[in-house]
Amino acid sequence: MGKIAILLYPDFTALDFIGPLEVLGRLPDGEVHYTSLSGGPVSNTAGLTVMTEPLSEMEELHILLIPGGFGSRNAVKEPALLDEIRRAAGRADYVLTVCTGSALAAAAGLLDGRKATSNKIAFAWASSMGPKVLWDRDARWTKDGKYYTSGGVAAGIDMALGFAADRLGREKALSIAEAMEYRWNDNSEEGWCFRKK
């Protein structure tokens, strides 16, 4: 599977990367790296601190995973971070975003002309980061070339299972979901689990 870089920034949402990591970490030969713009400890408001390495040091990269979180509102205003995301995405075989992580990818210009989605509650803000993106508000997750985007938080797990199914087959994805005791919502077009807004 190769190197998996999880990009963190202050006030990330933990489940946005921990949920997909439970899936991606079960794929063969995965090597997980926690990264940030400059390296060092990165924390969120729930009190979770993760030690990271600079994303720029990841020369070989299979998967770039960009989570969302309230900190994405500030992160999209950092040109140096957007530049590094752009460079890392160019090296990566696949780029996966969860929740408002798609706003970062959009602000970096990675999703122009591509289908994408984001957190449904924050959809208006996230979609404003990429006016050239083909935003799909109804999708639970999307895939367009090497780019996968998902709706909010738990939808990232469904996307990661969809990614696993695309790479290794549906049976493998189902076996991962079963091992996690997770009921996979495998319909990528069904964005709202509970109610439409």
Question: What does this molecule look like?
Answer:
The protein is of the alpha/beta class and 197 residues long. It has a single domain (2-179), classed as Class I glutamine amidotransferase (GATase) domain (Rossmann fold), CATH 3.40.50.880. Helix content is 33%, strand content 24%. It has helices spanning 14-24, 72-75, 79-91, 101-107, 123-128, 155-168, 170-179; strands spanning 2-7, 30-36, 40-43, 49-54, 61-66, 92-97, 115-116, 134-135, 141-144, 147-150. It has an eight-stranded mixed beta sheet, sandwiched between helices. It has a two-stranded parallel ribbon with strand order 7-8. Helix 1 packs parallel to helix 6 (155-168) and helix 6 (155-168) packs across helix 7. The longest helix is centred in the last third of the chain and has 14 residues, at 155-168. The mean pLDDT is 94.
Protein topology:
Elements: E1 2-7, H1 14-24, E2 30-36, E3 40-43, E4 49-54, E5 61-66, H2 72-75, H3 79-91, E6 92-97, H4 101-107, E7 115-116, H5 123-128, E8 134-135, E9 141-144, E10 147-150, H6 155-168, H7 170-179
Parallel strand pairs: 1-2, 1-5, 2-4, 5-6, 6-10, 7-8
Antiparallel strand pairs: 3-4, 9-10
Enumerate the spans where pLDDT stays under 50 for 5 or more consecutive residues.
none
Overall SS class: alpha/beta
Q: Output the CATH topology.
A: Rossmann fold
Identify the CATH architecture.
3-Layer(aba) Sandwich
Helix content: 25-40%
Let me know the largest β-sheet: 8 strands, mixed
What share of the residues does DSSP label as strand, in percent?
15-25%
Figure out the total of helices: 7
Radius of gyration: 15 Å
> How many beta-strand elements?
10
State the name of the first-level CATH class: Alpha Beta
Q: What's the mean pLDDT score?
A: 94
Order of helices and strands: EHEEEEHHEHEHEEEHH
Strand order of the largest sheet: 3-4-2-1-5-6-10-9
Distance between the termini: 38 Å
CATH superfamily: Class I glutamine amidotransferase (GATase) domain
Outline type: globular
Number of domains: 1
